[in-house]
Amino acid sequence: MQPDVDSSSFRLTEFSKGAGCGCKISPKALHEIINESIVSPEGDLLVGNSAGDDAAVVDLKNGTVLISSTDFFMPVVDDAFSFGKIAAANAISDIYAMGGKPLVAVAILGWPETIPPSEARKVMAGGREICKAAGIALAGGHSIESTEPFFGLAVNGLIQIENLKKNDTAKAGDFIFLTKPIGIGILSTAQKRKAITEEDASFMIDELSKLNTIGMSLAKIKEVTAMTDVTGFGIAGHLSEMAAGSGLTAEINYQQVPIYEKSKEYLKQRIVPDATYRNWNSYGDKISIEKSIDFMEAFSLLPDPQTNGGLLFSVKPEGIEKVKSLLIENGLKDFSNPIGHFIEKQEKLILVK
Questions:
Q1: 111, 221, 242, 289: most buried, per Cβ within 10 A?
Q2: Does 1 reside within a domain?
Q3: pTM above 0.90, yes or no
Q4: What is the distance between the alpha carbons of residues 62 and 129, in angstroms, rounded to a whole number?
Q5: Which residues are catalytic?
Q6: Does residue 159 sit in the same domain as residue 183?
Q7: Which residue stretches of the chain have pLDDT < 50?
């Protein structure tokens, strides 16, 4: 029988090597792993893993497609209930990133004997709360005993085929938008190192728990040409995937990229996730940063691993006003201006100016 333990003594991040989407294998290593098992679309499968998209997509032959994805990671925050909320929101985001409406989720849980089952129950409760907010049931799942705790979901969603958004269908001249700031990986690393203030920790949890429901509405705008969400590879990594898949180069106005101001304070303390360096080593040679930009700040923020980050999407020029109105109506006014645009393919995938 598990002895009674004061749950307040448990800081979940102390039980895991990684944190949140920073747990991801580096883009370079991942490519090597799946290189010989890439599933290209054929038959009823419309999206496999050939483009590194957010989910698999299957044609149901009735004008609707099924979107299927899974995502899980080790604790990004110390509180068990909050960890469950964040992991669930992050997993469901893959459905929103393709424009879909979530349908059902099942849980994926790994739990060590060193942490009481009561803490795992809180994780599941947090996951159920977010699923309820998304209008779906957490309908079951699978659990194992593991040396480190982890939690996530496998999620299915639906969308009309004409509204489906992929990450490799941008066009030259399209403008680029992002619906959340970057830098959350720095904040989560500050917590793991016990350097974060209580106020900033609370702020971080609120931000990490926000659902990307706007994706369902963006999908209905035909001028939105491509979409993905920003997670463990950072904005630079996921934008690189969009550019490479679309055969284009992304030109970014660094001053327009939304950044969590709080993250800059921790950068001054040299708090940077380990995954930032892994990310940059994987794709840094594909990025050009103008000399007028603070290179060390850009280096620390553009590859910063985001957990449940914002939606990154491209829009035809004639759709700009429609997108701006939608974002403003949904409380996203701060993100209603483009951060850059796509141009014809250059030597680099991303030009930061």
A1: 242
A2: no
A3: yes
A4: 32
A5: 21
A6: no
A7: 1-7
